[in-house]
From TrEMBL:
This is TatD DNase family protein. CDD domains: TatD_DNAse. The keyword Oxidoreductase does not apply. Keywords: Hydrolase, Metal-binding. Residues 1-20 are annotated as: Disordered. GO terms for cellular component: cytosol. The lineage of its organism: Bacteria, Bacillati, Actinomycetota, Actinomycetes, Actinopolysporales. It comes from Actinopolyspora alba.
């Protein structure tokens, strides 16, 4: 395959043939994908559903985004929300932010506290306020009884240390898992759930350890996501991402794990429904 032109980079990947069984995009950002109103959300999720991605979890990264994700989850029954303050914004984490998140997370369509954690790649927020905010979100997840959705960038050891010090919630999800096989084994042994994005399909040398991790994680502790509009899967890396593109990631992971697409899709959906307790949302 030849190089991707600048024009191609602005073109979304083609909408693929539907998966043989539906899956859930466990982490996306519908607002960052351009959705503003209910009709926008419906169009994005319609495209996803046509590709076999029947439901999505849209995730906040600041307070206004958190309010919007809760609204979006109320506009379309195929959409669920997760709310938190992203670690790169942690130095602005005051009483207003805490009170607002503590209220929003009680909405029945909010299925996780996230994304929270540590990001040592960017320097928008020093480590100390990030760690303080992370500890607060851990406590919130335990108090409310919902999964903790972790953002971990260049911070593996501090993430595990703080989880151990604070006592991890019953369910912990590593969004866009970025570790190697050894780190994956440590997380799996701790009972954590690992969610794989388009990065697990990349073919560069830096992705080798991640692909080894994706091959070994038990499917009972595995989710799939887009993190759209970022991290578009191979072979469309660099193009705009949307929830429908998780289709490509599922197909790639099935090949990597030497299983059928249908079998992997069914198993991933079962794990996602259990992790986020989606049956309770539907019943509510």
């Amino acid at each position: 395959m030849g190089g991707v032109s600048k024009g191609d980079k602005r073109t979304p990947p083609p909408e693929p043939e539907a998966l043989p069984a539906p899956v859930v995009d466990a982490h996306t950002h519908l607002d960052a994908c351009g959705a503003v109103e209910a009709a926008d959300v419906r169009r994005v999720v319609d495209r996803a559903e046509a590709a076999g991605v029947g439901r999505v979890v849209t995730v906040a990264d600041d307070i206004e985004s958190a309010k919007w994700t809760v609204s979006a989850a109320g506009w379309d029954e195929r959409v669920y929300a997760a709310v938190a303050l992203h670690p790169t914004r942690a130095k602005a984490f005051g009483e207003y932010e805490r009170e607002t998140l503590a209220e929003l997370v009680r909405d029945p369509r909010v299925v996780a506290v996230g994304e929270t954690g540590l990001d040592y790649y960017w320097d928008y927020s020093p480590p100390e306020p990030q760690q303080e905010a992370f500890r607060w979100h851990i406590d919130l997840a335990k108090r409310i009884g919902k999964p903790l959705m972790i953002h971990d960038r260049d911070a593996h050891e501090d993430i595990l240390r703080i989880l151990d010090e604070e006592g991890a919630p019953e369910t912990v999800i590593f969004h866009c898992f970025s570790g190697d096989a050894d780190f994956a084994r440590r997380c799996v042994a701790a009972g954590y759930v690992l969610s794989f994005a388009g990065t697990a399909t990349f073919r560069n040398a830096n992705a080798r350890g991640l692909r080894e991790a994706a091959a070994l994680v038990p499917v009972e502790q595995m989710l799939v996501e887009t993190d759209a509009p970022f991290l578009t899967p191979h072979p469309f890396r660099g193009r705009p991402n949307e929830p429908y593109c998780v289709n490509y990631t599922v197909r790639d992971l099935a090949e990597l794990r030497e299983t059928s697409v249908a079998e992997l899709a069914v198993a991933l959906t079962a794990t996602t429904e259990r992790v986020f307790q989606l049956d309770r949302v539907a019943a509510g």
